[in-house]
Amino acid sequence: MLTPKRILIVRLRQIGDVVFTTPAVRALRRRFPDAHLTYLVEPAASPVVATNLHLNEVIVAPRSRGLRALRQDLALGRQLRNARYDIVLDFHGGPRASLLTWLSGAPVRIGYDVAGRGWMYTRRVHRPRELRRRHSVDNQWDLLEPLGIERPTPEQDPVEMPVDRAAADAVERRLAAAGVSRDDRLVVLHVSAGNPFRRWPTESFGEVAAALAAGDSRNRIVVTSGPSETGAATGVIADARDRLQAAERGRILDCGEFSLAELRALVERAVLYIGGDSGPMHIAATSSVSMVSLYGPTLPVRSAPWRSARSRSVAVEVSGLECRPCDQRRCAPGDYRCLGRIAPKQVIDAASGLLSGGRH
User: Which regions of the chain carry the CATH code 3.40.50.2000?
Assistant: First the structure.
């Protein structure tokens, strides 16, 4: 293969999946140092790659419906074709990503051998249908093998999302307004998730928040959530404060909603992050913050924080369930036991262990 001058990376969504492609971006830059690297992504996950220093360009593909969506994709396809990419890597594999990859007209189009769409690629990589006990970064790396790029390690190619300076300044102003000083220790508690399979109960989060707030007068607990689940954060804050003495309630902070860029800046400032297996967890993994990750239907072997072992992470899960992992379409027992049976004490003990030896 001739040395490519222009490479397009396609991964439209979700947030965590886009984070998992950032090691591949770094590896592509190392393998082709002079290539023009472009990343195609949808708006929700675009902040993940907006500050990536290995990329020359980020194209944000708007999401629409119906005929408008088709017209936009055809126009975007013409834009991609005019850019004359030598190689397109489709890390997504969905119908829209496959179409845009094909419309690019690139002479080398690498993607998964998906039924009904494999013909859109010039090089197809097998992807088993079953859930494998293999990390998602490793799975995506299969697409890089045709380019002669060696297998990844978290030490050489960790996930990354550089802090946006404007977002960091905004976060500092909000923390100062909440009365947080540099002597305080921030714990970020992310309490929402994209579906009920990954949603730990409000009262469980509340118990953890209260225990950490009462355990050390320096601790300040920042409760965060996704934009559609601010009610979850409000509920956790109220539950935690109800469990505390009056003098301790101010340690549970209500700082409002954070954008992805602000969340990244917030965890850079924190000593600990606690949350389920979701996009924000993987945003946190791009920092060196200590982490407690809660796993329900997913497995740590597939989606643990992909970063150096020097950054401490603890996975909390329930073992021995025959229904786990699952495809998250239907809960066979009906009670979401894989996550619901995680006891608050498990999380409190894991968090306390990390805090006792974490950054101060």
Answer: 6-147, 165-357
